Amino acid sequence: MENQHRKIKGYRELDEREIMAMNQVKELAAMVGDIVESMKNNGACDQRWVAIGATDLQKGFMALTRAIAKPEFF
Fold first, then answer.
1. What does pTM read for this prediction?
2. Which terminus of the chain is more solvent-facing, meaning fewer CB atoms within 10 Å of its CB: N or C?
């Protein structure tokens, strides 16, 4: 469904600059995700710290997307 975000409460239309920023964040998150995945498959890495790093990075990227989207809810 096109423009389905219009039917979800609390979301708004993004302007062109915001869309560009959102796409940059999403692209960078995908690249970082690939690095994290390779570290998960690397037996030489301490997997506790890999998991902590992955969680913190996910929270950081989510914070960046919320900074751009500025949702109207908690």
1. 0.85
2. C
User: Which amino acid is located at 30 in the chain?
Assistant: A
Q: Is 13 left (phi over 0), alpha (psi -120 to 50) or beta?
A: beta
Q: 72 falls in which pLDDT band (50, 70, 90)?
A: confident
Q: What is the CA radius of gyration of the chain?
A: 16
Q: Is the dihedral of CA 57, 61, 64, 69 positive or negative?
A: negative
Q: How far apart are CA 50 and CA 29, in angstroms?
A: 15
Rounded to whole angstroms, the Cα distance separating 30 from 35 reads 9
Q: Report how far residue 8's alpha carbon sits from residue 31's, in angstroms, rounded to the nearest whole number.
A: 28
CA distance 25 to 33: 12
